[in-house]
Write a structure and sequence with these properties.
With 247 residues, the chain is α+β, with helices and mostly antiparallel strands. The protein contains four helices and 15 strands. It has one domain: Creatinase/methionine aminopeptidase superfamily (Creatine Amidinohydrolase), CATH 3.90.230.10. Helix content is 29%, strand content 27%. The strands form four sheets. Strands 8-7-9-14-15 form a five-stranded antiparallel β-sheet. Strands 1, 2, 4 and 5 form a four-stranded antiparallel β-sheet that branches. Strands 3-12-11 form a three-stranded antiparallel β-sheet, with no helix packed on it. The two termini are 27 Å apart. This is Methionine aminopeptidase. InterPro entries: Creatinase/aminopeptidase-like, Pept_M24, Pept_M24_MAP, Pept_M24A_MAP1.
């Protein structure tokens, strides 16, 4: 696990802000009729305008600047030319590499009006993200983050995806430790000041199980249920958890 200095965290805040600016842009652009390829181009242009490069493009051969996850897609989906439709829901994961460090954040967007169960799912997964962030305190353990998220998912009847987890982030996009969104309080690696974690719960309206498409990347819910995801990069500091992927 790689602890960052205060100077390194300052750079990571800048990388995180670039990601947040992209998500702010998407709030206005995600609507019926737009394609995820259009959104991908928009995000890449924004990242490069800010003097950064897309973290995902070329990462293990991934060809795009965003991961696109509509409806039953959990994560790692490819943008494509199909227009989004009224009532769809889509999670978009964005990374920006700036002056040697990555910022990483995913957000779920409603496409027009969505059903009430999807709205509740979005609200509750968003709440779970901040519950997990609240556990990112020096002296606690990785298991405390996951346990809190999982309690909320179980209490509200959602599937809590287990096959994909959060992670450390810094000079590398994926660093130790792995941050599952389930676990036992007091278990797992000890958290310490200077760590930066990408916390990213993924909740479904059905079962938590997943499969990966023949493209080798796109992960979907096994039962075809809707999935949403919220993610922030969070620094553990002596002043408590600090979200880096904000404006």
């Amino acid at each position: 696990m790689i602890v960052k200095s205060k100077e390194e965290l300052a750079v990571m805040r800048q990388a995180g802000r670039i990601v947040a600016e992209c998500h702010e842009l998407l709030k206005e652009r995600v609507k019926p009729g737009v394609t995820t390829l259009e959104l991908d181009r928009l995000v890449e242009e924004k990242i490069r305008q800010r003097g950064a490069v897309p973290s995902f493009k070329g990462h293990h051969g991934f060809a795009y600047s965003i991961c696109s996850a509509p409806n039953d897609v959990i994560c790692h989906g490819f943008p494509d030319g199909r227009p989004l439709a009224e009532g769809d829901v889509i999670s978009i994961d964005i990374g920006a590499f700036y002056q040697g460090f990555h910022g990483d954040s995913a957000w779920t967007y409603a496409v027009g009006d969505v059903s009430e169960p999807i709205r509740r799912l979005m609200h509750d997964c968003h709440e779970a993200l901040f519950l997990g962030i609240g556990e990112a305190v020096a002296g606690r353990h990785v298991g405390d983050i996951g346990a809190g998220i999982d309690r909320l998912a179980r209490a509200r009847g959602y599937g809590n995806v287990r096959d994909f987890s959060g992670h450390g982030v810094g000079r590398e996009l994926w660093e130790e430790p792995s941050v599952p969104h389930y676990g036992l309080p007091g278990k797992g690696p000890l958290l310490q000041n200077g760590l930066v974690l990408a916390i990213e719960p993924m909740f479904t309206l059905g079962d938590w199980r997943a499969f990966v498409d023949s493209d080798g990347w796109t992960a979907r819910t096994a039962d075809g249920s809707i999935c949403v995801q919220y993610e922030h990069s969070v620094a553990i500091t002596e002043d408590g958890p600090q979200i880096l992927t904000v404006l």
